[in-house]
């Protein structure tokens, strides 16, 4: 009797409204630097459509790509660079015809808000001198987009050899930002949008656009997504309202707004 009662309870739970609704949420894997803008856009879309808000997992692009490769279920992937989107596409994990380049960004050097460092020179030994024996907070320079862009820029500006042994490598760009915001690192390399999201840091230098590959965030639906709302939300990312949210956070929007949204 007890087993029968537990079985009945389990069957009943499947049909509870909250659980049924949770199964309808769009699931998104997105680069950590998108958190503020994408959370706002998801809330706007949910309010306008009456649909449940998307469930968004934020992490570094390689971490998300590897999770997808291992079978983690998601409807959409938004990477912080082309390489990791190319990687999952090469694994046949995308609906290729849904892929497009959504956003651009810039990389900067930040310091704690009360730091005396300002208008920092980056070339040659200047950055190493400014560190004064401290650590330069960055994401993984071989795999995570922000770290890769930063390393490329430092190499182009002749600063990498002087600082390469002073790097504190974080899991993702928000973690790198946090090290600076807490004063645990005197300087850090992050996106300008991340710097704008945290009042405890200030921008002390901006990397020239020609010092690193273009920063591009591509978006696409995944091959196994069957949620009709996923396509609707992907389309909403092209809308004028989404553009406003992205631009408010400092992103450059690379697509024209949909005429219908």
Polypeptide structure, described:
The chain has helices at residues 2-14, 17-22, 35-49, 61-69, 82-90, 126-131, 145-156, 160-163, 173-181, 192-197, 228-236, 240-248, and strands at 27-31, 55-59, 76-78, 100-104, 107-112, 136-139, 167-170, 187-191, 201-206, 216-221, 252-253. By secondary structure, it is α/β, with parallel strands linked by helices. It folds into two domains: 25-104 and 215-253, Periplasmic binding protein-like II (D-Maltodextrin-Binding Protein, domain 2), CATH 3.40.190.10; 107-211, Periplasmic binding protein-like II (D-Maltodextrin-Binding Protein, domain 2, 3-Layer(aba) Sandwich). The strands form two sheets. Strands 2-1-3-10-4-11 form a six-stranded mixed β-sheet. It has a five-stranded mixed β-sheet with strand order 7-6-8-5-9, with helices on both faces. Strand 1, helix 3 and strand 2 (55-59) form a beta-alpha-beta unit. The longest helix has 15 residues, at 35-49. It starts with a helix and ends in an 8-residue tail after the last strand.
């Amino acid at each position: 009797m007890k087993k029968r009662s537990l079985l009945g309870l389990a069957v009943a739970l499947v049909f509870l409204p909250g659980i049924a609704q949770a199964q309808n949420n769009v699931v998104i894997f997105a680069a950590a630097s998108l958190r503020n803008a994408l959370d706002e856009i998801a809330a706007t879309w949910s309010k306008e459509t009456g649909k449940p808000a998307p469930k968004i997992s934020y992490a570094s692009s390689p971490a998300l790509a590897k999770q997808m490769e291992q079978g983690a279920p998601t409807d959409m992937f938004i990477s912080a660079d082309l390489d990791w989107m190319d990687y999952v596409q090469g694994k046949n994990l995308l609906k290729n015809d849904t892929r497009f380049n959504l956003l651009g960004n810039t990389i900067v050097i930040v310091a704690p808000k009360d730091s005396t460092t300002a208008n920092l020179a980056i070339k040659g030994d200047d950055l190493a001198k400014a560190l004064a024996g401290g650590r330069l907070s960055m994401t993984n320079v071989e795999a995570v987009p922000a770290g890769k862009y930063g390393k490329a820029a430092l190499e182009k500006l002749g600063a990498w050899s002087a600082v390469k042994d002073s790097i504190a490598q974080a899991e993702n760009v928000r973690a790198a930002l946090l090290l600076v915001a807490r004063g645990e690192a005197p300087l850090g390399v992050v996106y300008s949008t991340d710097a704008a999201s945290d009042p405890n840091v200030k921008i002390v230098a901006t990397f020239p656009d020609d010092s690193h590959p273009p920063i591009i965030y591509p978006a696409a639906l995944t091959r196994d997504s069957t949620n009709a709302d996923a396509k609707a939300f992907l389309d909403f990312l092209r809308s004028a309202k989404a553009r406003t949210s992205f631009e408010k956070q400092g992103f450059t929007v690379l697509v024209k707004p949909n005429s219908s949204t």
